[in-house]
From TrEMBL:
InterPro entries: ArsR-like_HTH, HTH_HxlR, WH-like_DNA-bd_sf, WH_DNA-bd_sf
PANTHER family: TRANSCRIPTIONAL REGULATOR, MARR FAMILY (PTHR33204)
Transmembrane segments: none
Coiled-coil region: none
Record-given protein name: Transcriptional regulator
Keywords carried by this UniProt record: DNA-binding, Transcription, Transcription regulation
SUPFAM superfamilies the UniProt entry points to: Winged helix' DNA-binding domain (SSF46785)
Matching Gene3D superfamilies: Winged helix-like DNA-binding domain superfamily/Winged helix DNA-binding domain (1.10.10.10)
HTH hxlR-type domain sequence ranges: 13-113
Pfam families given in the database record: HxlR (PF01638)
């Protein structure tokens, strides 16, 4: 017995990493990836200032999760005083895929509420 729910059609089944799937659906993940893609490198406090409502604890957790998944890179300068975060190639690919999915949801069901929903 396999983990696929489609019987007699194993070629339609695809394995995926539940950890990555859970990470990309967490609040602020896309916002962090978007910022790092736009600004190339950012410090922790710069990211904090750009994201409304995020706490230091959540930002710290999310950055560690994204780094562990190889979606962002954490770099320390030669003096050991400045930590910079940047997006990896994998992170850019994931960000682009997430944006395409958001655009598709808008095509299928355009937001008609004057108070729009946002991804974070």
């Amino acid at each position: 017995m396999t983990g696929c729910c489609i019987q007699d059609e194993q070629d339609l089944c695809m394995e995926y990493s539940p950890k990555i799937y859970q990470l990309i659906t967490r609040k602020y993940t896309l916002a962090i990836l978007l910022l790092l893609d736009k600004y190339d490198k950012m410090r922790f406090n710069e990211i904090m200032r750009k994201i409304n409502g995020i706490t230091q604890r959540i930002l710290s957790m999310r950055l560690k999760e994204l780094e562990k998944a190889y979606l962002i890179r954490r770099e320390i300068d030669k003096n050991g005083k400045t930590v910079m975060y940047s997006i990896t190639t994998q992170g850019k690919a994931l960000k682009n895929a997430m944006l395409m999915l958001l655009q598709l949801t808008n095509l299928l069901s355009p937001p008609n509420n004057p108070e729009k929903d946002y991804f974070c």
